[in-house]
Amino acid sequence: MDKLWETVTVGRMTLSHRLAMAPMTRSRAQADGTPGDLAPVYYSQRASLGLLISEGTQPSEDGQGYLFTPGIYTDNHVAGWKKVADAVHDKGGYLFIQLMHVGRMSHPNNTPHHRLGLAPSAVAPGLEMFTATGMQEIPVPREMSITDIHRTIDEFRQAAAAAIRAGADGVEIHGANGYLIQQFMAENANQRQDQYGGSIENRARFAIEVAAAVAHEIGADRTGFRISPGMTLGGLDEGASGPDLYRYLISELAKLNLVYLHVMHGGNDPFLKEIRALWPHVLLVNRAGRPLDQIASDIEANLADIAPIGAWALANPDFVERLKVGASLNPADTATFFGGDAHGYIDYPTLAKLQQES
């Protein structure tokens, strides 16, 4: 694992190792979308991971789909995230806020305005979603007009600017996991006949325009982008043209000189090698189901520059220290992943605390 402990420069950041914290929804924000009072503690506890990518954060009211997810579009949101950023910086870490517009993955009962979700086409995902009154079927979304599309691109831009005002070191645009940007790329969710639908170039257009707007606003060296090629979360099917779409998209994003590309990798190793060849900048690879003893395998194979981790970081605020000494890890309590209080959020013990108690 020697290469895991080498330094790496990512835009304006110099990281002391090749680990990072992956974005993980925790659903503990206040009702208005302001990060909860415990969020600065949660993130700063994990600052030794170096680069912390925040939970998905909506860039607008229309971007929200789940209960108690944070936003970054009001003064209160900015003030709340500033507490998080300051706490992370005080512990020597860096914070990128992930901008997540859920698109059709929304229910009116979960949003501040109770409107239908927005999507490239009026096609429901065929899934249920948790609401305050229990599981409910996700309704058919409203197809976005060209005006809606342009407004949403501008909301991403404004949210990125707000993140920088809050003291974040950058933003990650969420173009993965079944949410709005990937919905534009998926054949079964995007049935448009205009410049945002049909051809590969058209279905990638929204993603590229969002990335360009954000990079122009805050700098390409503070703008990352996440993709999940071939994954079917949110009921998406990118179709047979999916690989070609990503080849085109990655090439176009590379021209913008974004600071990194973050790949949620489902196991198609030949395609990951193609991505590595296409992407000339820093590459983050979050490999699903990766065993601990292979955490550095993609870095050692030159398929990635950084290996983000999810549940291991959630349950082990001192993951870096534990990995260095080969210590056992706390198991993650799945029952406390989403919503709740301090339990399962900021009370996972560090190795030092366990040793003091023994």
Automatic annotation (TrEMBL):
This is Alkene reductase. InterPro entries: Aldolase_TIM, OxRdtase_FMN_N, Oye-like. Coiled coil: none annotated. Residues 3-328 form the NADH:flavin oxidoreductase/NADH oxidase N-terminal domain. Transmembrane segments: none annotated. It comes from Sulfobacillus thermotolerans. PANTHER family: NADH OXIDOREDUCTASE-RELATED (PTHR22893), NADPH DEHYDROGENASE 2-RELATED (PTHR22893:SF91).
